Each structure stands twice: as structure tokens, then as C-alpha cells.
Amino acid sequence: MRLAPADRAPRVSVGVPVYNGEAYLRECLEALLAQDFEDYELIISDNGSKDGTEEICQGFAAHDSRIHYLREPENRGASWNFNRLPHLARGTIGSSS
């Protein structure tokens, strides 16, 4: 298993803010998941996408437990979506705790 045990946070958190990213999202996620370093979580924050973004993210999350997919029902703005990610991160590298 690639993930750290449930009682231990991953070393790194990677955040992907997305809105209507269907055209390039699959390629982005495949590239992130192909990295040699595996002790990380991948947090996808979907800002109310209206295209196939949700289906793509759910498909990836169903096959890799490192992926955490969160979706807002409506767009809350790009700044909100970017700023949300650090608050969701559990990675220990660069953490003040």
C-alpha cells in the first residue's frame, strides 16, 4: 500500500484546484500519480464544474486511496478554491506542527 498508515499523515500534500477542467484533468492526474515518491495525498477541489470533471475525479479517487475529491455544488470563485487547499492539507513537510 502506498499511503501512510491511518494514524500518520502523509509527508506531502498536493492540491489541485479545478473548474471545468475536463480537457486536461485526466493528463494532469496521471502525471501526478506517476511520480516515484508515493507518500503523498492528492486533494482535488472542484469548484462547481459543469463538465465531466466530477466523473473524472471520482473515477481516479475510486482507484487510488491517496486521492481526496471535494466538490462544491456551485462556483465560489478561483481565489476561494485556491485558498481552500492549504486548510485541507495533512502533509508533514513544511508543516508548522
Task: Give your account of this protein's structure.
The protein has helices at 22-33, 53-63, 78-88, and strands at 12-18, 40-47, 67-72. By secondary structure, it is α/β, with parallel strands linked by helices. It has one domain: Spore Coat Polysaccharide Biosynthesis Protein SpsA, Chain A (Alpha-Beta Complex), CATH 3.90.550. A 3-stranded parallel beta sheet has the order 1-2-3, sandwiched between helices. Strand 1, helix 1 (22-33) and strand 2 form a beta-alpha-beta unit. It starts with 11 loop residues before the first strand and ends in a 9-residue tail after the last helix.
- The CATH class label is Alpha Beta
How many domain regions?
A: 1
Query: With helices defined by DSSP (H or I, 4 residues minimum), what is the helix count?
Result: 3
The name of the CATH superfamily reads Spore Coat Polysaccharide Biosynthesis Protein SpsA, Chain A
Give the strand order, joined by hyphens, for the main sheet.
1-2-3
Helix content: 25-40%
Return residue spans where pLDDT drops below 50 for at least 5 consecutive residues.
Answer: 1-5
Q: How far is the N terminus from the C terminus?
A: 26 Å
Major sheet: 3 strands, parallel
Sum up the overall morphology in one term: globular
Q: Output the helix-strand order.
A: EHEHEH
What is the total tally of β strands? 3
Strand content: 15-25%
